[in-house]
Amino acid sequence: MDWNCPHCGLRQVVTNAASDNGSLELRVGGFAEAGDAKYPRLISIVSAIRCAAEDCKKISATVDLLVGEHWDYGHAKIEGSEFYAAQIYPGKHGKPFPEAVPAACLEDYDEAWAIIDLSPKSSATLARRCLQTMIRDFCDIRERSLFAEIETLERRLAEDDLPRGVEEETIEAMRALKNIGNLGAHMTERGGEILDVEPGEAQALLALIEMLFTDWYVARARRRERLARVLEIDASKNDGTSNG
Ligand SMILES: [Zn+2]
């Protein structure tokens, strides 16, 4: 089974040694999810997988709830229909990103994901703050509002003077979000005011942030790594010549 570790993001094949599950049959009388099942039994299955990455090795756990029956004649067998499945550990959060992304941004981003269902308003507020932190940090642009900062980026795009590592496409994406009704209006607010959002606005902002994490910070870290390798090769060549 192919699986992505929710902690480190590594795609891997899960082995028997790294995974296990157990089930529990609970009898609580007839319950709504069971419909008209003759023997309404709640089966919960908890599954755990250990990540294979040496520098991760973290556990992830999920729970599945079924209406069904648990047979155990020689070997356990479960029959039933599932009505709920959820990851119970780690909790809901954003995609994993490497350390190249500033910790303050990752914290806002993760928290924005964690509360997106509970409070889209607070989620969008955190996402806006995260976007503003990035524009200030990566682009070194600081204006009175996020809206004004994006306008500065648009102006610099028009003048062909974008900050290093910032592509035209990312400015296009920001411009698109800035022009969405509520979202654009909120960007003119200063600081962390919590304002109403339309459904999906927090997700749209978080998708933009994910794109910028990759296009700005991860790409810059890779460029620096490649450059360091080139310099290393160059240095070892020079060593060789001087010794030989
Ligand atoms: Zn992992």
- Let me know the largest β-sheet: 4 strands, antiparallel
Order of helices and strands: EEEEEEHHHHHH
Query: What percent of residues are in strands?
Result: 15-25%
| Ligands bound to this protein structure | zinc ion
Query: Average pLDDT value?
Result: 85
Output the structural class: alpha+beta
Tally of individual helices? 6
What oligomeric state do these chains adopt? Answer: single chain
* Cα shape: flat
Over all CA atoms, what is the radius of gyration? 25 Å
Overall structural domain count: 2
By DSSP, the count of extended strands is 6
Helix content: 40-55%
Strand order of the largest sheet: 3-4-5-6
Distance between the termini: 53 Å
Contiguous runs where pLDDT drops below 50 for at least 5 residues: none
Please describe the topology of this protein.
Blueprint: E1 2-4, E2 11-13, E3 19-26, E4 42-50, E5 59-73, E6 75-89, H1 103-114, H2 120-139, H3 146-158, H4 168-178, H5 181-186, H6 201-243
Antiparallel strand pairs: 1-2, 3-4, 4-5, 5-6
Helix pairs in contact: 1-2, 2-6, 3-4, 4-6
The site of zinc ion has 8 residues, from loops.
Detailed description of the structure:
By secondary structure, this protein is α+β, with helices and mostly antiparallel strands. It has two domains: 2-89, no CATH class; 103-231. Helices cover 43% and strands 22% of the residues. It contains six helices and six strands, in the order E-E-E-E-E-E-H-H-H-H-H-H. It has helices at residues 103-114, 120-139, 146-158, 168-178, 181-186, 201-243, and strands spanning 2-4, 11-13, 19-26, 42-50, 59-73, 75-89. It has a four-stranded antiparallel β-sheet, with no helix packed on it. A two-stranded antiparallel ribbon has the order 1-2. Strand 1 (2-4) and strand 2 (11-13) form a beta hairpin. Helix 2 runs parallel beside helix 6 (201-243) and helix 3 (146-158) packs across helix 4. 17% of the residues are buried. The mean pLDDT is 85. Bound molecules: zinc ion.
